[in-house]
């Protein structure tokens, strides 16, 4: 009986530990998937989805600081205006060479993204910082750099 109780207790602890690890989005696979979701939300022009994915203090630094969005709301306002002015504009995005680094409750996802817009391809190097906030991973910062065509 004692052995059965010990086995059941160990099993319960094991299941709880696995659930805790699986519930934590700060791991490489989860962050890479979440980052692909960010790119998809941009293509789908989903302000609602982006609102959920971006930290309120989010900052995005674009090409040589040519544009800096200093908050989630500033970015959402910019995107909303841009999308309303040109609702027919179609954009697609493809990520590649994507990797993630993890430290404690912070993850950094980086790689390349080809953006297809107006018949042209733009290649960006990106680096996004994810933090665990209220049980979910959100983007705290984003840095993108346009790579010149050679």
Q: Classify the helix fraction into a percent range.
A: 40-55%
Low-confidence stretches: 9-22
Task: Please name the CATH architecture.
Answer: Roll
Gyration radius (Cα, Å) is 19 Å
- Assign the structural class, choosing from mainly alpha, mainly beta, alpha/beta, alpha+beta, or little secondary structure: alpha+beta
Order of helices and strands: HHHEEHEEEE
Quickly count the domains. 1
Look at the structure and give the mean pLDDT: 86
Q: Which descriptor suits the 3D outline? A: globular
Strand order of the largest sheet: 2-1-6-5-4-3
The profile of the biggest β sheet is: 6 strands, mixed
How large is the share of residues in beta strands?
Answer: 35-45%
Kindly provide the name of the CATH class: Alpha Beta
According to DSSP, the number of beta strands is 6
Distance N terminus to C terminus? Answer: 73 Å
Write down the CATH topology. Answer: Nuclear Transport Factor 2, Chain: A
Describe what you observe in this structure.
This protein is of the alpha+beta class. It has a single domain, classed as Nuclear Transport Factor 2, Chain: A, CATH 3.10.450.50. It contains four helices and six strands. It has helices spanning 2-23, 28-44, 47-53, 72-85; strands spanning 54-61, 68-69, 91-103, 106-117, 120-133, 136-147. A hairpin with a 6-residue loop joins strand 1 and strand 2. The termini are far apart.
């Amino acid at each position: 009986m004692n052995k059965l109780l010990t086995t059941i207790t160990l099993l319960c602890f094991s299941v709880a530990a696995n659930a805790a690890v699986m519930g934590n989005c700060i791991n490489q696979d989860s962050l890479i998937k979440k980052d692909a979701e960010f790119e998809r939300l941009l293509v789908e022009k989903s302000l609602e989805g982006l609102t959920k994915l971006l930290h309120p203090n989010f900052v995005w630094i674009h090409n040589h600081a040519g544009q800096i969005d200093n908050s989630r709301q500033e970015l959402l306002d910019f995107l909303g205006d841009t999308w309303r002015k040109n609702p027919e504009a179609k954009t697609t995005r493809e990520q590649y060479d994507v990797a993630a680094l993890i430290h404690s409750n912070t993850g950094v996802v980086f790689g390349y993204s080809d953006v297809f817009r107006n018949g042209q391809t733009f290649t960006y190097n990106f680096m996004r910082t994810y933090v665990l906030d209220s049980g979910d991973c959100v983007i705290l910062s984003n840095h993108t750099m346009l790579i010149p065509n050679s």
